[in-house]
Amino acid sequence: MRKYKRVLLKLSGEILAGSEKFGFSYPVINEICQEISEVAKAGIETAIVIGGGNFIRGVQAEEQGMDRVQADQMGMLATVINALALQNALEQLGVQTRVQTAIEMRSVAEPFITRRAIRHLEKGRVLIFAAGTGSPFFSTDTAAALRASEIKSDCLLKATKVNGIYDKDPVKFPDAKFLRKVSFAEALSLQLKVMDAAAFSLCMENKMPIVVFDFRQRGNLSKLLIDGERTGSMVS
């Protein structure tokens, strides 16, 4: 049984690169968009927030000596490139889309307007949000929490490389314990790295549940949204 009518999917920029360190893997983008198209064509209103880490990360650029504000602005522009790549792949699959940006660039995409965004979703269009929050020092995780709250999403889906939330990094620590369900307070007190504290706090304030799941396992998105299967971990 389907639990969600409207969802926001948070994708990292790195996921678009596949096994590459930088840029796009077109086969990977097509696979991702195949899954998203199945969900959209099943009638689930779908919005996406995309990161830009396959091109630049503001924090890492700052560590190399770049001004943080300018580095974050470059990162925001990288998310627009990724959003257009997703839009192209989705529309080739017959899915109507719109890209909305937090930084105005009207010849490329629409500016973010809440009511217009909701109307696009009601019409069955996949909505891709780019340029983060439009402000430096805020991650695209925080942008996802913000947009999910603004469009009144039923859930925020955080796509990751692992099958959910652990009490510590399962890649580094073989004894890491899998957490099927945690509260927002626990997520903050344990300093779970799956999302930043600002994103957790915003979701907690707006009672926005977060599902963290493995997006590399093909079919998980459909299992979660269409089949109603329980997969990954939930923060609520």
CATH architecture tag: 3-Layer(aba) Sandwich
CATH C-level: Alpha Beta
CATH level 3 topology: Carbamate kinase
| Number of DSSP-assigned strands | 11
Strand fraction equals 15-25%
Cα shape: globular
Mean pLDDT: 92
Name the poorly predicted regions. none
- Give the C-alpha Rg: 17 Å
Question: Could you walk me through the main structural features you see in this protein, from its secondary elements to its overall organization?
Answer:
- The protein is an alpha/beta fold and 236 residues long.
- The chain is 39% helix and 19% strand.
- The protein has helices spanning 14-17, 26-41, 58-63, 68-92, 114-122, 140-150, 184-189, 197-205, 220-225; strands at 6-11, 45-50, 97-101, 110-111, 126-130, 155-160, 165-166, 178-179, 181-182, 210-214, 233-235.
- The strands form two sheets. It has a nine-stranded mixed beta sheet, with helices on both faces.
- It is globular and about 50 Å long.
- The two termini are 20 Å apart.
Q: What are the main properties of this structure?
A:
236 residues; alpha/beta; Carbamate kinase; two-stranded antiparallel ribbon; globular
Briefly summarize what is shown.
This protein has 236 residues and is an alpha/beta fold. It has nine helices and eleven strands. The chain has a nine-stranded mixed beta sheet, with helices on both faces.
Summarize the topology.
Layout: E1 6-11, H1 14-17, H2 26-41, E2 45-50, H3 58-63, H4 68-92, E3 97-101, E4 110-111, H5 114-122, E5 126-130, H6 140-150, E6 155-160, E7 165-166, E8 178-179, E9 181-182, H7 184-189, H8 197-205, E10 210-214, H9 220-225, E11 233-235
Parallel strand pairs: 1-2, 1-6, 2-5, 3-4, 3-5, 6-10, 9-11
Antiparallel strand pairs: 7-8, 10-11
